[in-house]
UniProtKB/TrEMBL annotation, chain A:
Keywords: Dioxygenase, Oxidoreductase. GO terms for molecular function: ferrous iron binding; oxidoreductase activity, acting on single donors with incorporation of molecular oxygen, incorporation of two atoms of oxygen. This is Extradiol ring-cleavage dioxygenase class III protein subunit B. It comes from Pseudonocardia dioxanivorans (strain ATCC 55486 / DSM 44775 / JCM 13855 / CB1190). InterPro entries: Xdiol_dOase_suB. It comes from the Bacteria. The keyword Protein transport does not apply.
From TrEMBL, chain B:
This is Extradiol ring-cleavage dioxygenase LigAB LigA subunit domain-containing protein. It comes from the Bacteria. The lineage of its organism: Bacteria, Bacillati, Actinomycetota, Actinomycetes, Pseudonocardiales. The chain crosses the membrane at residues 71-90. It comes from Pseudonocardia dioxanivorans (strain ATCC 55486 / DSM 44775 / JCM 13855 / CB1190). Keywords: Membrane, Transmembrane, Transmembrane helix.
Length: 288, 120
């Protein structure tokens, strides 16, 4: 069976690409430290020597729209083109094409359906920065095949937080039951407290540093039950109007497992939102 | 009220570079054209299979025609869609980095929780 070699949860900051590639007067003062942190985070994936990446993210009204909105969707295609005009326009993101691991997509869909998740699927999916940002930060050579998994954290009505955790647990079971000798990493991105298009946006820090501190503690400690006890669809409005993206972190806690402490934790307090980076090695790291 | 249709306007304009410019330069004309020609277009279908029932109410039409992102927020337009499109149209008019985004936040400063419902 396939081996789950790394579980990675991260924020996806669309400004990283531009900040990290800017030079001279265009380079923001926080860029060098940000690049240092990202390169250290990248090493946590490199060490795990993955062959395949399962990428959990959320479409930002690019391909998925309100006339036909899935809650959870799995891509099943040989290739995925990536990034959209408005992401090039606002963030300077490059166009990309990633290979798909289609047999793992088929496995996730068949057995995910049988496990009680009525997953939608797409055979032609153009992915957005929720998936390309972690490719840029963690695997910039973009050389590994992927299985994209999209969640709806964006267009209410949304699934309950507990459902995200359950899907994470199921994704882990599906990866570990894939009849293959490949080494798989599951990478998911979400947000800590975040406000978009509201009065608390683009402040000197994230809109709710207290929530961020608590959230980082839950993720780092694998405190799923404590997190579920405090977080609801209603409560997530309080830290910022886009904070429902935190449920993708909860999904990744489900992949990592209850009580599983992260092997690597880092954060970076930026304007607008806090960055947070977590890695778990379910089977340890060879030779360590 | 058609919160969905307001979102559909923002969505379809934001993804089309020519429409972004047209809406910036001529908001009244663009909103009138869009409501007449595009509002009922089912996005994955041929023109003949358009919907028959979608229209803005007066407050929605006025908010869009006035580039009034504060009114759009109050009406429950999806804040991500509004923000993204308005950055595309107006960030260029500000010298300071994030100057438009901060002005935007300031103009919404008197909203408190709970924010207007955005469910469609």
């Amino acid at each position: 069976m396939a081996e789950l070699v790394a579980v990675i949860a991260s924020t996806h900051h669309p400004f990283y690409y531009r900040a990290s590639t800017a030079t001279g007067d265009d380079r923001p003062p926080f860029a060098d430290e940000w690049v240092r942190k990202i390169e250290a985070f990248r090493e946590t994936l490199t060490r795990a020597r993955p062959d395949v990446l399962v990428m959990v993210g959320s479409d930002h009204f690019h391909q998925l729209w309100l006339d036909n909105m899935p809650q959870f969707l799995v891509g099943k295609a040989p290739f995925y083109d990536a990034n959209w005009y408005n992401e090039e326009r606002e963030f300077g993101l490059p166009r990309m094409t990633l290979a798909g691991q289609e047999d793992l997509s088929a496995h996730v869909l068949r057995h995910g359906l049988d496990a009680g998740f009525d997953l939608a699927f797409s055979n032609e999916l153009r992915i957005d920065h929720s998936i390309t940002c972690p490719i840029i930060t963690l695997r910039p050579q973009a050389d590994l095949p992927i299985v994209p998994v999209y969640t709806n954290i964006f267009a209410p009505p949304l699934p309950q937080p507990s459902r995200f955790v359950q899907l994470g647990r199921t994704i882990r079971e599906l990866v570990e039951s894939w009849p293959s000798d490949r080494r798989v990493a599951v990478i998911g991105t979400g947000h800590l407290s975040l406000e978009l298009g509201g009065p608390r946006q683009f402040g000197p820090h994230g809109p709710d540093p207290e929530f961020d501190q608590k959230a980082v503690g839950w993720i780092a400690g694998g405190d799923i039950e404590e997190c579920l006890a405090e977080v609801s669809l209603e409560s997530l409005h309080a830290p910022g109007n886009a904070t429902h993206g935190f449920m993708d972190f909860m999904l990744m806690m489900g992949v990592a497992g209850e009580g599983q402490k992260a092997d690597y934790v880092d954060t970076y307090d930026l304007f607008h939102t806090m960055e947070a980076y977590f890695t778990w090695y379910p089977g340890g790291i060879d030779g360590e | 009220m058609s919160r969905y249709l307001v979102d559909k306007f923002l969505f379809t304009v934001d993804r089309d570079p020519a429409l972004v410019e047209r809406y910036r330069e001529d908001p009244v004309g663009t909103v009138a054209w869009w409501e007449a020609e595009e509002a009922n277009r089912l996005l994955s279908c041929i023109a003949d299979e358009r919907s028959t029932w979608l229209a803005f109410d007066d407050a929605e039409r006025a908010a869009l025609a006035g580039h009034d992102y504060r009114a759009l927020f109050a009406l429950g337009a999806h804040p991500f869609l509004t923000l993204t499109l308005f950055i595309a149209m107006f960030e260029r008019d500000h010298d300071e980095p994030l100057g438009f985004q901060r002005e935007y936040a300031q103009r919404l400063a008197d909203f408190s929780l709970p924010y207007p419902d955005i469910a469609t």
